[in-house]
Amino acid sequence: xxxxxxxxxxxxxxxxxxxxxxxxxxxxxxxxxxxxxxxxxxxxxxxxxxxxxxxxxxxxxxxxxxxxxxxxxxxxxxxxxxxxxxxxxxxxxxxxxxxxxxxxxxxxxxxxxxxxxxxxxxxxxxxxxxxxxxxxxxxxxxxxxxxxxxxxxxxxxxxxxxxxxxxxxxxxxxxxxxxxxxxxxxxxxxxxxxxxxxxxxxxxxxxxxxxxxxxxxxxxxxxxxxxxxxxxxxxxxxxxxxxxxxxxxxxxxxxxxxxxxxxxxxxxxxxxxxxxxxxxxxxxxxxxxxxxxxxxxxxxxxxxxxxxxxxxxxxxxxxxxxxxxxxxxxxxxxxxxxxxxxxxxxxxxxxxxxxxxxxxxxxxxxxxxxxxxxxxxxxxxxxxxxxxxxxxxxxxx
Length: 397
Fold this sequence. Notes:
Elements: H1 6-10, E1 25-29, E2 32-34, E3 39-45, E4 52-58, H2 62-67, E5 73-78, E6 81-96, E7 100-109, H3 111-116, H4 129-137, E8 143-145, H5 149-156, H6 188-198, E9 202-205, E10 211-215, E11 225-229, E12 244-249, E13 257-265, E14 272-281, E15 298-302, H7 309-327, E16 328-335, E17 338-342, E18 345-348, E19 353-359, E20 364-378, E21 381-390
Parallel strand pairs: 8-10, 11-19, 13-15
Antiparallel strand pairs: 1-2, 1-5, 3-4, 3-20, 4-7, 5-6, 6-7, 9-10, 12-16, 13-14, 16-21, 17-18, 19-20, 20-21
Helix pairs in contact: 4-6
């Protein structure tokens, strides 16, 4: 058994028969609940501007068809927990002599409005990141919040299960940003994501659709899920709860050394010179070779916004961290949509939580941050695909 905390104390009892629940997906439109959707895909991803859903149900009558009109506001509910709130983009009705009537809907959460709609033509001079976000997400979200604690509780099951131990949420710099105005035609998300990236922040919608979160990954959490991929003929085979795993480790977009330089103009219009420089290396070699790289691979980035050597070094470190994180990927597929956190209390998989993963065959053991979950039911089988990032990874929208 690896790690420590409440999940470890529960031992194998908390991990038995993951996915044995009969999961129920419902759609609420206004005060009406449409139940028993038999095929579905629901994707929640902190690194994408909009979460998505597609659902299908057989033998749907006229009442369900009329309710599921395009642009209707919907709540997607999994095992009694609201996991996504948004709008229907498309409704499809199929009638077949062999298979009968089928109603299918697809759409996105309220973040889809930020992707589609043009930003209001405003200036952001003197605004902090929270005030700027409020201008971009209103009226689709009633507030901008700087903590994901309440949303994490909602996704995991509300008051029905206890929260794992979590340190205070990461602090957010709310200092005013440089003067900038919106260019006509820019989407709300294009404007917002630019400022979020500059501030090294992420942004995502809450499951109930009320709030937009501006924040950072919270790696200081007790793990809430455990995944084990046993080796063949393992004595721990009955503990295994991974159907598929895909692990990537590459250097195609990575570099052994990254240097950021700030440029300034000289006396003539065409004269420019380096005013600031910062460099980071992947390995111990002169050009960063010797760890992930056998031979040197250099990248130089010119950035006119870099003010001094300290700023250049910070930019170089972030660029290196982002590329290293993107070069190492881990995705697992588990049966069902939840794990037993306490006896009889099942916790739905949720992003912005921590888990452990062990691949017994290659000896890989670690703690990971869940960035995305995708709930799927097809041909009667319910599974969840989870995208994991190494603890402490720097993430980019």
